[in-house]
């Protein structure tokens, strides 16, 4: 992988945005699809940045089910929330496909933050965004109805020319919603039959947002 590609990934990161010089403090790690990654490497605490591929973030339910919380892509980092605590991440990180990471020791990152106020402010901003995301996820996962979970997911997703692109497989989407794959297909078929959505090759198109919102808040 070229130095230019590594620098572009760092520049795309909300944390290291515009700080290509930090590449020299990082190491490259190549992982295979399905490989578990961690913020502990060779006995050292590290922060990881996705250069290529994807990393899926899972929470393990009491019954052993894996619930996908999010998917990290190019420029996204893991190992942020426990930067100042000596604790392991409470989630499981799994490569969704062959993935290239840049890693930096957390001790080195803390040194950089002491001398770079902009980096420290970006770190604080990302922590705020993660807290807001987790609050929404808690609210989302406490919903009882699989239909409500699906509708809220669709309403929260950004649209491009009216189409909601699915960035993961439907199996992964079911895991993210905390429902079975069969339930997901059943609810999608039901919403399409009621002419509220259309399933298209590139994703899902919402046909009646107002009616979806009515269903969501009535249940």
From TrEMBL:
> In this protein, which residues make up the domain named HTH crp-type?
144-210
Q: What is this protein called?
A: Transcriptional activator FtrB
Q: Which residues form the Cyclic nucleotide-binding domain?
A: 21-113
Asked if the Swiss-Prot or TrEMBL record annotates the protein with the keyword Transcription, the reply is yes
Q: Which GO terms describe its cellular component?
A: cytosol
Residues annotated as coiled-coil are: none
Entry keyword annotation includes Transcription: yes
Q: For this UniProt record, give its keywords in alphabetical order, as a comma-separated list.
A: DNA-binding, Transcription, Transcription regulation
Could you tell me the superkingdom of the organism this chain comes from? Bacteria
Citing just one GO molecular function, the answer is: DNA binding
